[in-house]
Amino acid sequence: AAPPEGALSNGVYVPPSAANGDVKPVVSTTPLVDFLMQLEDYTPTIPDAVTGYYLNRAGFEASDPRIIRLISLAAQKFISDIANDALQHCKMKGTASGSSRNKSKDKKYTLTMEDLTPALAEYGINVKKPHYFT
Amino acid sequence: GNKHASTPADNYYLARRRTLQVVVSSLLTEAGFESAEKAAVETLTEMLQSYISEIGRSAKSYCEHTARTQPTLSDIMVTLVEMGFNVETLPAYAKRSQRMVITAPPVTNQPVTPKALTAGQNKPHPSHIPGHFPEFPDPHTYIKTPTYREPVSDYQVLREKAASQRRDVERALTRFMAKTGETQSLFKDDVSTFPLIAARPFTVPYLTALLPSELEMQQMEETDSSEQDDQTDTENLPLHMSTDDSGPEKENASVLQQNTSLSGSRNGEENVIDNPYLRPVKKPKIRRKK
């Protein structure tokens, strides 16, 4: 059942216009507060020192090490989402022409700029690398 | 990558950058790629670094927007939402990638070594500034040393200067008076070498000794009647004081006053300080006409 309109139950505020399901409820911090507790013993791929270094360069002084892990997780997810999209592009290009049925497309996927560029374009990031003549 | 030799400062930055590259490579491996183009890895590394920096900057801005200094979870939440990041999927992602490789080791501490151009000791950070902020600049950038010399305050030198200045002033003034007024000359033929100011004979020669000088008149006037509305000229006062004299004597008195007023500063100075630069300030006379 959808949460009642305008109510503040379980930390999710539903605007009155969301009853028809067009607008998703506004995100609240409750799910992440629990998640933050789970981050106590979780080590993301990016070391805390590196993330902390770049955050310090931006002026962000982290009081809680779990905040740093949260940010590094978010950045990781960002990159891996793009990587997955690029993989989809790579797979689509490979099997589009309907090549060999016996074995599936070779497992060796190489990330190239031709796959990365359309994946990034969906995120609004336009890269134009020049062709080097060497 | 360039094979040029890098300074220790560059190595400090490069070490972390290389860690990010390793992280990106591990993420790509986890996604299913076997290999990748160098340009693609560089692109993703740059994006990762800039993403982290942007989160930090934006979270700090949101935090300061609400008059706080310590960013909290809410600030980061709002930052991620603003950057188009779907926050709800984050726990799911964390759980999914439990099996991922945690290869990147922490970077060893390589502080930025000082360059050879440092001059002087930098001021250390006050306690309220965190350690990761850059250092204060070299002291020569903000220390101001005056370039003028201290004025000479030696008594002897000052007295000499005052005396020579006074003598110059007197000489210039007398020569000016000689040029513009009547002159008498000592020598029969040569008139211009040593001009003397022509002495005007007084009808009453002892009058100058009896009457006070202009400076004294001013001081008397200021101390006696400081609240009078109309301040008459001091030249008029001797006239009033000598009203019992005869008429031509009045004229002489006025002439005398004018004569002594020009050199009266010298006579009256015996009462006050010799040095014209150390004299007290004379306020200008305010004439209010009724």
Q: Could you explain the architecture of this structure?
A:
The complex is a heterodimer of chains A (134) and B (290). Chain A is mainly α and 134 residues long. Chain A is 46% helix and 4% strand. Chain A has a domain at 32-94 and 110-123: Histone, subunit A, CATH 1.10.20. Chain A is built from four helices and three strands. In chain A, helix 2 packs across helix 3 (65-96) and helix 3 packs across helix 4 (113-122). The termini of chain A are far apart. By secondary structure, chain B is mostly helical. Chain B is built from nine helices and three strands. In chain B, helix 2 (38-65) crosses helix 3 (73-82). Chain B is rod-shaped and about 125 Å long. In chain B, 12% of the residues are buried. The model of chain B is unreliable at 229-248 and 257-269 (pLDDT under 50). The chains are: A mainly alpha (134), B mainly alpha (290). At the A-B interface, helix 1, helix 2, helix 3, strand 3 and helix 4 of A face helix 1, strand 1, helix 2, helix 3 and helix 4 of B. Strand 3 (110-111) of chain A pairs parallel with strand 1 (35-36) of chain B, so a sheet runs across the interface. Chain B: Residues 218-290 are annotated as: Disordered.
